[in-house]
Amino acid sequence: MSPVALRFDPVGRPVDLYTDITALSPEQSELDDFPCDAHNSEHGQVTATLAEWILDRLGT
Question: What is the C-alpha separation between 60 and 46, in angstroms, rounded?
Answer without folding.
Answer: 17
